[in-house]
Every structure is written in structure tokens, then in C-alpha cells.
Amino acid sequence: MPALPAIPALQNQPARAAGRSGAGTALTPVATTSRVLAPAPSAAVAAQPLRIAAPGDAAREPGAQQRLGALQQGLAYAQKLDASLQQLKSGLSLTLARNLPASALDLQERVDGVAKLWQARGVEGAGQIDARLQAVPEGREPQREFGLRGLDRNSLAASGAETLRLTLPGQGRALSIHLDGQGVDSHLRAVAQGLAGLGVQTRAQADGGVLLSVAEARWPALRDGLQLRGDGRRFPSGQPVRAMLDVRPDALQPAGWQVDGADAQRASLARVVQAQQQLGLTRQALGRRLEAASAAAPAPDAAEAAAVARLAQDFAEAAQGAPLDYEQLSALLPAVAGVHRTRVDQLLAADAA
């Protein structure tokens, strides 16, 4: 078989991950309504929006392909989860309508299928859907929300200064939060700025509660290892004690969905319907974001489109003859290494037009 014609290398600049939120600056006084007290992410590290690139620069903007891929994967996962919920809803509805036993339509297996899929959210969802079944904001990580017992508006309103010391396993030294005794607003700002050192954001709620949040990846270490010590005013003095953290439950809790008996089936059906409604909003949000990101991707230039077209033609001609040997493949593969499928589709479409 004659040797394949030379194929121009397709340059593909390595992509870097989108930036994450950072900690930061002084905080404004807390209002009576719910608001985030943690500092806004700095412009240097915040995820940058997609921009229209110069001709020939398509798909090479740092992080663009990763964001597109993550959105596609997140939307595919949402659709898969919705299909699983729909299957369970149909089974529950039919069982109730015909007064059938749960085993007749394998309801428990359907519940287990939803549970298994929900447990895989972190991987299959590509970090696009959080535990509340909501779309994760652009450039952010999924967050786990929780409360710290003893940390609420009433305790922060108590008079007197106090220093809280928080430690985590592997942390070099304790993190100190000084409450200066100057009132709730001052104390909330001190807590927000101090907890930011652990990657924790603080939100004051209108009902007087203090809601905390941390990236899901950091939650297990915080949940299992956080210890604190006070001066005896709001928190005990002496030896550090394990912090009591109350996590907000997941929006989906299939482990608690019962299918034995009509009453249990009706309750589970209501939860499934509620989950589908929220998931529908999440799918719409991800769909709009993916559409906007795809529209912002610049069209490929003629030279690159021609290079990919020649590459496709060479593959087609090679398939009609003898199989490629190792030497030919080793010369060919570097030309296509790192080229995303979306990129190839764009180039081929441009050539066809």
C-alpha cells in the first residue's frame, strides 16, 4: 500500500481549567434579608466568559472545550436522571391505578436505579448539578450547605469578646476568629472572613440562621475532622471539641422512598414529581448555557477546514485498501492527538458549506 500523503499537524493549544472562586476582602454590613457574606471572587481567578476568537483560533481558547464538554455531559446526565425518574413515576402511577403489588412492576428496582444514578452525580454530572438538584453557577464547584451548631444570630448577638479556634487534621495551626463584642454585624463579618480560610462561605438568613457552604470535594474532611474551641462564652473552652455540623439534605433521597402500600407509594410519587419539576428547571438552565457557549464558539478558518477534510479523505481511502500498519499509524496519530470531536465536526461542516 502506498504511503499516506503528508497531513498538516493540527495545532491544539493545551486548555487549562477555568478559575475558581477565591477568598478576599472586607465585607459590607449584613442586611436583614438573606445574603452572602463571603467576599466576591477576584477578577484574576474568576472563570472568564467565552469570547469570539480571531479567525483560525477556534476551539483553542483556554478552557473553552472543557466548559463545552462539561455542559454537554451535565445535560446528558440530567436527561438520564429524568428518564429514570419518569420510569419510576410511571410505575408508581400504574401500580396505584390498578391496585397492584409493588413487585408487579419492580418498583423497588426502579427506586434503586434512581438512587444509584444519584450517587454517581459527581462523576457523571461533570460538576454541573449540585446536591440541591440545581445547576451549578458558571466557573463554580458544587457546594454542600450546612450549619454549625451554636453559630446563629442569637449567639452572635451575645455581649462580650471571644476568640474561636478551629482546626482540621493536617492543618498546620488553628484558625482564629476574633469576635470583638461589637454586635451581630461585626461578628458575622469576622466569621465570614475567618471561615474563608477553610474555603467556607457564610450566608446570613432572614430567620436568624447562619448557613455555611463548602465545595463538595472538601466537605468530607470538614464533616469528619473539624474541631473548635472558644473562651466559654459561646463555645466551650479547654480542649477542642468536634464541631457539630448539620448538613442540608439532598434534594433527592431515594433511600427514603417507600413502595410498599398505597400510602407510601403516593408519598413517593409526590417526591418524584417534585424532583422532576426541579430537574426540568435545571435542564433548561444547562441547555441555555450550552446553547450560548456553542454560539460563542468561532467558526474555523478555511485552511484548518481543508486540513481536516484531507485527513478524513485519507482515512476513507485507507479503509478501502490494506489495514494501516504500525509505522503509518505512529506517523498519523500525532496529527490528531488532542483534537476534540466538536472541533472536527465544526471543521467538516465548514468545509461542506
Describe the protein.
This protein starts with 34 loop residues before the first strand and ends with a helix. It is extended. Strands 1-5-6-2-9 form a 5-stranded antiparallel sheet, with helices on one face. Strands 4-3-7-8 form a 4-stranded antiparallel sheet. The protein has helices spanning 64-98, 107-119, 121-124, 153-157, 184-195, 219-225, 262-296, 302-320, 326-336, 341-352; strands at residues 35-36, 143-148, 162-167, 175-179, 201-204, 210-215, 227-229, 241-242, 245-247. It is an alpha+beta fold and 353 residues long. It contains 10 helices and 9 strands.
Secondary structure layout:
Layout: E1 35-36, H1 64-98, H2 107-119, H3 121-124, E2 143-148, H4 153-157, E3 162-167, E4 175-179, H5 184-195, E5 201-204, E6 210-215, H6 219-225, E7 227-229, E8 241-242, E9 245-247, H7 262-296, H8 302-320, H9 326-336, H10 341-352
Antiparallel strand pairs: 1-5, 2-6, 2-9, 3-4, 3-7, 5-6, 7-8
Widest beta sheet: strand line-up: 1-5-6-2-9
Major beta-sheet overview? 5 strands, antiparallel
What is the count of distinct domains? 3
Number of strands: 9
For the structure shown, list the relevant keywords.
single chain, 353 residues, alpha+beta, Immunoglobulin-like, 3 domains, five-stranded antiparallel β-sheet, four-stranded antiparallel β-sheet, 10 helices, 10% strand, extended, disordered N terminus
